[in-house]
Amino acid sequence: MQEKKNLIVLEVMCFSILLKKRITMKEKRISLVLLVIILISMFSQVVFGYQLISHKLSGGIRNRYYAFDSTVTGYWSTPFYNAVNRWYNTNTYHAFAQTTNINNAQMIFYTYSSSTDGKNGYTAFFSSSNVQINPYATDWSYCQVYLNKYHLASTTTDFDSGVACHELGHVCGLDDNNTMPATIMCQAGSGRTVTSPQSDDCNGINYIYPNGY
Ligand SMILES: [Zn+2]
How remote is the CA of residue 69 from the centroid of ligand 1, in Å? Predict the structure, then answer.
């Protein structure tokens, strides 16, 4: 609000200067500078710290459940547990508890191994009738979240946990945001510098689920 008030003050100053009968060179220069400041202020407000899929997890992110598929063995549960905790510890309503009943889970964790798909992990979206859906077209009831053991076997636990965090962002409706490397929704291939959700990511979550729903 304060920024908008300042803009109005600047505009009034500009126009009052331009409306004077005699405009000195100094006044012209001042009004030009003020106009540039106004234009920069207007365009700088267009940048957002998150991108949205524009659909969401039906029922929200509060008091929900995750489960492990049998492909998650040994070490591989760790990045998933870390990702759940890192999101839980943000200033959002993100709260998923573990269940052994896969039918009650809104996030189901898997691993696979592919040397050719070029992915560290991915998320698939499903309807309540267990049909895979296009998340850009409709809301979803649950997701399958996959980590690619082929690539992640040679990276650190912290990196792997960051990949899982990124995928959990997709589960909630955040899209990739490769223009901002210091957000979890930047893809690792585009130079992501963080391994946990940042304030821009959380702003996106809170925009989608203002009360957790
Ligand atoms: Zn992604």
Answer: 21
Question: Residue 19's domain spans which residues?
Answer: 2-44
> Residue 203 has which token pair?
């702003």
- Are 93 and 37 in a shared domain? no
CB atoms within 10 A of CB 28: 12
Residues 40 and 55 occupy one common structural domain: no
CA of 44 to the centre of ligand 1 (A): 26
Helix (H) or strand (E) holding 166: helix 157-171
pLDDT at 133: 98
Residue type, 167: E
Q: How far apart are the CA of 121 and the centre of ligand 1, in A?
A: 8
Check if the beta carbon of residue 126 is closer than 8 Å to that of residue 45: no
CA–centroid distance, residue 24 to ligand 1 (Å): 56
Averaged pLDDT in 10-residue chunks for the chain of 213 residues: 43 50 65 64 64 97 98 98 98 97 98 97 98 98 98 98 98 97 97 98 98 96
Number of domains forming the structure of the chain? 2
